[in-house]
Amino acid sequence: MTVNTFIAEFFYCIIGVIFILVGLKTLRDSNLKTRITTALFWFILAFTFIVGPHIPYWITGLCVIAIAVLTAFNRVHQSASDVPSAEATRTNANKMGYKVFIPALSLALVAVLAATFLPFGANNAIGISAAVALIVAFIVTKAPAKSAVTDGSRLMDNVGTVGILPQLLAALGALFTAAGVGTVIAKGVSAIIPDGARLIAVAVYCIGMALFTIIMGNGFAAFSVITVGIGIPFLIMQGANPVVVGALGLTAGYCGTLLTPMAANFNIMPAALLETKDKYVIIKAQAPVAIAMLVIHIILMYILAF
Amino acid sequence: MELLKLVGVLIVVVGFALKKDTIATVVVAGVVTGLVAGMSFMDILTTLGKSFITQRTATLFVLTLPVIGISERYGLKDKAVDFISGIKNATTGRILALYQTIRALAAAFSLRLGGHPQFVRPLINPMAQAAAEAKFGAVDEKTEDEIKGYSAASENFGNFFAQNCFMGASGTLLIVTTLVEQGYQVDALQIAMMSIPIAVVSVLVGWVHAMMLDRKLKARFAESGKKEA
Predict the structure, then answer these.
(1) At residue B229, does pLDDT exceed 50?
(2) Is A172's Cβ below 8 Å from some Cβ in B?
(3) pLDDT greater at residue A259 or residue B225
(4) How many residue pairs bridge chain A and chain B with CB atoms within 8 Å of each other?
(5) Chain mean pLDDT for chain A
(6) Cα–Cα nearest to A97, from B101, B119, B74
């Protein structure tokens, strides 16, 4: 095992421990009817993170199926957390002042610095920055050590089961590729993209991202499908820079998010929250920006990727 | 028969569109795709398990949660409210443009500012409405609705296009893992840096959009003012 893999595995174990803490918090919540199955969800997830690399892959595959069964039957819910009251955070804020931003800012800065100047790779840099920022947080806030546990597991529970979605979508992409889905889409799309027509390929990819996001209401899911089916065969394999295609591809999808009632938590629920007369008022306000941004994405990707 | 392989894509589209459980939708789509393509169940489990293990990278954002959680407890959001409510004597458009800019900067630095319930309803929308009323007197219901729409939109613009500038953002990690899984070696630093141009552009576009709202309001109320006079 190289030093970098060792550090990476160490961080994955920490993530596993956070999952276990959420599971234990769940077990303590006797008011939660689904506490056993919810805890099971987090413990299985922890198992894949900590033990997964050292056992045959099919066992992890089975674990993934198990967590899907648990969520499919609505057996996983948030448990009670130690949520700080509005008065408590206000009092703390008055005491702390703008210093309270320092830990979070150091999270982003240390990540970039560690990725640039340390030899441990960009992924480990995220873990290193989290560790440094946690120390900074303890120094700045003088929080008791248990806060890392209570607040970490509270937020993780808040993010909930969808937190695992990006990882799962990457795994879906792998299955799609193994099954040859990308090739099938690519064959279909090649009818509308003439050979070597880079600008058209860029436009089809960006518009495809936006359209799929409009239909699904989720840019992440669109990204794994459209990137495997269009982005890689028609752009990256034609010499486009994968970093540019990936970075702009996802945000091209977000142009679709701005346009769709399917993304209810961004576009419809806030309208209800603001008690608007017209429930589509947010989408109407966003439409011109979404279209302008999509056009800019196409131009920018075309210029930067080739 | 080749087309049958697309059934997985169809499952993802329909599952998300019908708001079925996201995790189950994705797993079912993967398993069905494998079966249709003639993979054995064991092959499917192995492929699924292997990429789930190698793509744990996508879940690295979890490591940042304790820091954010502690910061919230010690008043992160309250201080952000203090900062934003300090914006004085601005037009409706300028308040929204400034909020979008602050929101974008915060997203780029991984600060999760809660969004619509925590900022737009209690703070941004009232400030934007008050600025319009201060300038034009009472505004009609349609205008009030429009300003509400723009207020919520400024939150979304700021949030969406800048979040990937943070290396540990789940979107950034999704891009990294998807490309690595397909055999392209990219890392989170590269993706975060390449996300900066569009974040900057989105702030500029947001400013233009907000300034146009100011002009529209001015034109609308100047006209109605003339009619009354």
Answers:
(1) no
(2) yes
(3) A259
(4) 480
(5) 92
(6) B74
**Least CB–CB distance from A101: residue in B3, B76, B117:** B76
The reply to whether B54 and B70 lie within a common domain is no
Give residues with Cβ within 8 angstroms of A237, minimum separation 6: none
* Residue segments in chain A with a per-residue pLDDT below the cut of 70: none
Same domain, B15 and B105: no
Among candidate residues A27, A47, A72, the one where a domain is terminated? A72
pLDDT of residue A159: 85
Position B223 scores a pLDDT of 66
Domain tally, chain B: 2
Can you state the percent helix, strand and coil of chain B, rounding each to 5?
85, 0, 15
**Whole-complex ipTM:** 0.89
Cβ contact A269–B9 (<8 Å): no
> How far is A219 from A283, CA to CA, in rounded Å?
16
CB atoms A59 and B49 under 8 Å: yes
Domain count, chain A: 3
Q: Let me know whether B127 and B109 are in one domain.
A: yes
Measure the CA–CA gap between A261 and B228, rounded to whole angstroms.
Answer: 39
A217 shares a domain with A300 = yes
On whether both B55 and B68 belong to a single domain, the answer is: no
Residues A52, B49: C-beta atoms closer than 8 Å? yes
Region B50-78 average pLDDT: 91
